[in-house]
Structure to design on (219 residues):
């Protein structure tokens, strides 16, 4: 799926940029296999984006980064081919099934959950936008949890799940759950080490946006 002028047209499309869909339009143009795009996991999208960036524009990616000890922003470079997939607990994965189980440590509540897909992320965004009409600061965390969790103690009813998240999901259980979620969901490790003027900073996360493909692309 090489990046062509057609894809650069997508990256510079002002309408796509305003709608915030330019990356998805780019991916849909690049993917030639017949798939349901909404079924793509977030980690799958990240892997395709990085592969497309390397094939289309090369492995070296420059971006600006600011550190409290520095005087303003500085340009840094990273070799995208050095990025690795997150370590995956294959023993926790059932092949062909997007379903996982976790026992919350404080309450012993058994929850099942799924790795979020593009379609799930779209549904979450729509719900948050709807909530913003009645609440200027809706909880994105709880909204995401209501879409990730698929059952509570065997009960798959959505009303039960939402009530549990709103009223019984303890903060310390949430912390443990989110850590476990990271362990079982596939993704690319977007954190890297940068070096500027002899200063080394570890754990810098690479941001994927329009500039990731075409630094000169603007609205």
């Amino acid at each position: 799926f090489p990046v062509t002028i057609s894809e650069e047209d997508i990256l510079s499309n002002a309408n796509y940029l305003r709608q915030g869909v330019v990356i998805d339009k780019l991916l849909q143009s690049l993917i030639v296999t017949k798939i349901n795009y909404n079924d793509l996991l977030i980690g799958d999208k990240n892997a395709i984006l990085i592969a497309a960036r390397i094939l289309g524009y090369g492995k070296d990616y420059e971006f600006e980064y600011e550190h409290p000890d520095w005087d303003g922003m500085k340009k840094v470079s990273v070799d995208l081919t050095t990025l690795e997939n997150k370590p995956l607990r294959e023993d926790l994965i059932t092949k062909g099934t997007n379903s996982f189980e976790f026992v919350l440590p404080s309450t012993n509540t058994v929850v099942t959950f799924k790795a979020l897909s593009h379609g799930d992320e779209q549904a979450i965004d729509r719900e948050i936008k709807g909530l913003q009409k009645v609440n200027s600061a809706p909880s994105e965390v709880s909204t995401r949890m209501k879409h990730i969790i698929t059952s509570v103690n065997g009960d798959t009813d959505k009303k039960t799940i939402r009530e549990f998240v709103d009223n019984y999901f303890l903060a310390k259980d949430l912390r443990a759950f989110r850590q476990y979620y990271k362990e079982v969901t596939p993704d690319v490790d977007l954190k890297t080490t940068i070096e500027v003027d002899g200063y080394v900073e570890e754990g810098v996360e690479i941001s994927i946006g329009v500039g990731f493909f075409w630094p000169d692309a603007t609205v």
Summary: The chain has a mean pLDDT of 86. DSSP finds nine helices and seven strands in the chain.
